[in-house]
Amino acid sequence: MNTRPDLALPPEQPLDMPRQHQHAAGIALRSGWSAFRARTWFMRLLLTIITLAVTSYGVYEMYAVLNRSITTVQWVFLILFSINFAWISFAGSQALLGFLLLMFRDIRGRRYLHDRPPAIRTAVLVPVYNEDPVRVAAAIETMAAGLADDAPGRFAFFILSDTNNASAWINEERTFRQLIINSNRVCPVYYRHRRDNSERKAGNIADWVTHWGGGYEAMLVLDADSVMGTDTMIELARRLEAEPGLGLLQTVPAIVWGHTLYARLQQFANRLYGPIFSHGLSIWHGEGSNFWGHNAIIRTEAFAASAHLPILKGKPPFGGHVISHDFIEAALLRRNGWGVKLATDLNDSFEEPPPSITDVMVRDRRWCQGNLQHSRFLFARGLAMTSRLHILSGIMAYMSAVFWLMLVATGLLLAVQADMTRPEYFTQPSLFPTWPVFDSERAINLFVASMAIVLLPKFLGWASAIINLRRCFRYGGPVLVTLSVLVEILLSALVAPIMMLAQSRMVWEIFTGGDSGWKPQRRDDGSIPLMDAWRRHKWHTVVGIVVSGLTFYLHHDLFLWTLPVTAGLLSSALLSWASGKRGPGQALKLFGILRTPEERRPNRILTDVTRRLESTRGDNSANAQPGLALMLHDAAFCEWHCAQLPQTPADKNRFDPAQVLAAAKAERSPSMDALEAWLTPAESMAFLHNPELIHIVARLAAGSARLQLATK
């Protein structure tokens, strides 16, 4: 418990967290050999065989389509096709095995029943960065109430704020202060704000580990939009406790609370196809799985000893702090002998989707830079092969867009070349001509096979619902789930070429030195004006017009073949604008299209969070957006805010321009409203970190208020 009741944090319990090196010796898994590991190796072998067989078929057929008499451009086309076909073959093979495992578990059943709380103590970490505090508080209050009843004394929540906007900081402090005061002692809620946002989320977590990690055997990392059921949180702690060699256990978050068209599209795809992919991943991950940054439990001591990220030589985007921390933290844990597993059988783990295409593009820009930066670790000494495959998969998630774009461009070049170039029948000395032959029938068969592999995961997701009637009716029944799959395929096909061009541009920007920065995410409203959508997607539209015109000029059949690509590009601005609107999404919901199980039968934890959130939002005082003036006129809150600031003496040798300017403006401002208007964002944050300046201005504000009252 706190030694001072005005503090929002418990006494520090430090834990050493040495920074790791990019290259280090690997350690064998602590768990030793087991039947689980033997089964994992067998499934890895089976996955490799299926992937190689399908890839070999596709590459051979394409080579045969080109009739074995291949020009330089055709060789480029064949190589690009081979890379792309291998990528979709791996995904399709993985989905097939995941489907079989899911069907087996449907037959066997997947219930976990335990009646005792875990013995270990777990800190639930909730990093926030300029988020809506009311939404975060509602989720934490609901989860904490359940844990207080079911596992008293075993869990504690830490809200770790990296917020760098003054108004947002004041707002979250007012909201979280009330949450802390009302929290149950057997499941307390704490709050910490740090001024230095170094290393972003990874630095935020590392800061907690070094100050309080010594008091908790486990840390359950959530995101600001995460919600997790009490039973699932307790079971995660039990499993970590039961396996001494396990360092991290990752759940598979389900996407919920999607309201816009694009959010509902992602939500449906995640809920229907997600189990196929997650079970496919678990087939070959074994104890070398991955970390997705949230909704996972981690052994604190293992994380502290293994996963303090190295700082890479050079400047961003490839040097400096590691941006996408999660993949590398999992790799470092595995390198140090700790198992990393994926729990596909635990439900009640949730997150929210980005609301629109433009929001996904903003998020992808950061993820793309982080994944490409991981290339620095691809050949790092000591990493397990599965960790290298995770890193390669992350890179390919964005490089595949470049390869697809290059494949389309090369195919168009071949079409132009065929239209404009006179055939050479005697390229070599011979009595007989070499006829240019293109096996069109084989090409059509290969195209059908390629589309079948691309659509296989979607078909298997649909089949998993049709076969299991209980699952099927959670999506509205056979008719509605089939219609939903068709709508999802159509909309996803239109979005795919937009993302192909957008991600290709991201890769280009990163390779030319562009840095993504760190922007907060929008959670609910994704709407943008139509003209803004046009400005964001005008080049996509232009590319669509050029490609459509070129293919129509070359051959009408070629125009029809490329229509799946050009249609999405031509409608990119309109599609992006509509994607962030609630109207289209709610219209589909009204007819039961893109329905998910949580909409058919509301989940208890989600219902409780929603009810608590609606109740809180109904209170206008809780939903206020306070500024500096409002804080300074609330003496109790002002004192509480100052009590949370680090009690360290000022460094006289350190010159802080923002602090100096904030003090000068405070001295000269005629009123609080004027001061708030004068201060820049950096100066506002500096002001809020200076308790002496806050107290001086608060006294002046109080005196001014009394003077105004006396004159009245």
Automatic annotation (TrEMBL):
Sorted UniProt keywords: Cell inner membrane, Cell membrane, Glycosyltransferase, Membrane, Transferase, Transmembrane, Transmembrane helix
Membrane-topology descriptor: Multi-pass membrane protein
Biological or metabolic pathway of the protein: Glycan metabolism; osmoregulated periplasmic glucan (OPG) biosynthesis
Alphabetical list of InterPro entries matching this protein: Glyco_trans_2-like (IPR001173), Glycosyltr_2/OpgH_subfam (IPR050321), Nucleotide-diphossugar_trans (IPR029044)
Pfam families the record matches: Glyco_trans_2_3
KW tRNA processing (keyword) present: no
Keyword Cell membrane: yes
SUPFAM superfamilies: Nucleotide-diphospho-sugar transferases (SSF53448)
One function term, GO molecular function aspect: hexosyltransferase activity
GO CC annotation, single: plasma membrane
Residue ranges of every copy of the Glycosyltransferase 2-like domain listed in the record: 220-411
Family as reported in the entry's similarity comment: Belongs to the glycosyltransferase 2 family. OpgH subfamily.
Name used for this protein in its record: Glucans biosynthesis glucosyltransferase H
Organism, as annotated: marine sediment metagenome
